[in-house]
Hints:
The chain is α+β, with helices and mostly antiparallel strands. It has 3 helices and 14 strands. A hairpin with a 5-residue loop joins strand 1 (2-5) and strand 2.
Amino acid sequence: MQIEMRNDGSLEISGYVNAVDRYSKELYSEKGKFIEKVKPETFNKALARADNIDMLLNHDVRCKLASTMNQTLELREDNIGLYAKAIIYDKDVIAEAKQGNLKGWSFGFRALSDTWEEEQPVARRTLEDIDLIEVSLLTIEPAYIATSVQVRAEGIEQRSRPDGVVEEEQPSVNEAYEREKQWLDVRVWLMKNK
């Protein structure tokens, strides 16, 4: 992630939201533990279909930082992955950047097509086609190493992990699922009452 303070007081931030064909850290769902990767060209297909994609802070729909529609957010897939460049005017986010609290990127999506390899010690998922809902700057740990709490809401998935999660102390699948359900209730309410 590259961060540059501009003369007008705004922040220019750029970097890769996701590196394609690279597996995430372990994620959890009602099926159990799994890792996932995004197939090359998946983001290009999603970007071609999207009218607008917003940049949020920590997947919070109340904290919109930039958008492709108003041209404060540029998104493109190249041979590395999904690249983002944004101009941000939000004073709180600029303060977070100055304090070194921005930890990476994440993305919210709806899976349209995926494949699973469940014959492994940990299941492997490959995303082949998605609707890209949003990209987020994070003050929490990313789920994808190259950039990312996985949260699901009405088919929408997000890729980030809460701060302070120690790998050896991961919650059980049931605990993780219950926490996700609680987050979902909040996020669904926020989406409906936006």
